[in-house]
Amino acid sequence: MSDVYDATKQDFASARAAFDTNDFQHMNVCANRLMANVLFAEEDQKLYAIPGYFLRTVAGEFLAMREGDFAKELRSMAESFIAKLDIAFQRELNLTAVWEGYFEYRERERRVLLTPYERKIYKDNKTFSRKGFAYLTKELFEGDSLFHHQSALLTVIQVEADRLIRNHGAEKKDIALLLIWIALAGLNGYCLVECSSIDKEETAKCLKSKLMPYVDRIRNWYASSEEVPFTDGTSILCDLILAWRRYYVKYGEVGRTSGESERRVELPDEARKRIGETIAQALQKDLLEKHSKAKR
After folding, report:
1. pLDDT-based confidence at residue 67 (cuts at 50, 70, 90)
2. How many domains does the chain have?
3. In contact, 268 and 68? CB cutoff 8 Å
4. C-alpha–C-alpha distance, residues 66 and 19, integer Å
5. Fewer CB atoms inside 10 A, N or C side of the chain?
6. Among candidates 58, 66, 28, 24, which has minimal Cα distance to 179?
7. Are the C-beta atoms of residues 180 and 241 closer than 8 Å to each other?
């Protein structure tokens, strides 16, 4: 039972060492490696994928930044979170510490990401953000847009949800929901490839059969009263991660740049205050390319 834990802890240590030397490309590689190794684990060990997912999230943010004072300010926050994540990553993962550590990091991060004008004008309004999330989830939970071969629903939801969180703050469950959406979007990209067909109706049916079980679970979880450590919500996230890794074994990177060849995205100065939107725009471009391939 210790083999998987030992292997994933080594992946974590390697990712942290890469972070310490500002090698965010290798940090991303190690985070993906950690999640991949959980694919070989037993069902009761699937929670080990969560530290890898958070490491990958942090690495992605830094890969989307230019070096400078802004990156240095955010780096100290990320360093604190990674240290807490490392302590929580025991044989019995301290899920509460993981989530609380991320929420603290996300709150500090979002305040840095605000422009001076936004920081002065916007006040926390989590009630408003909850209304926004209710609107965004309605189409995902009740409509069929997700199953259209050209749908960009998940990308748009991520952009809008990130904007709400950044400008107005959000409840912990809403922030967790966004992370689950991002994982669902990653899985959706692979499903588009597997379900690609000349017949659009058959493609839609295939997508629905693969994605709807997850959508149903997410809807039920979000409607529940579950609080931190979000045991059920985390289980959904783990299953999405592992489903994505299974598809990776079958299809590889599906048009995405991978491993050591992944390059840093250089942004204009003003874009450094918009990390979330920038990443979402990149995701949208990626999805559109996949949709285009699926139609051929």
Report:
1. low
2. 1
3. no
4. 15
5. C
6. 58
7. no
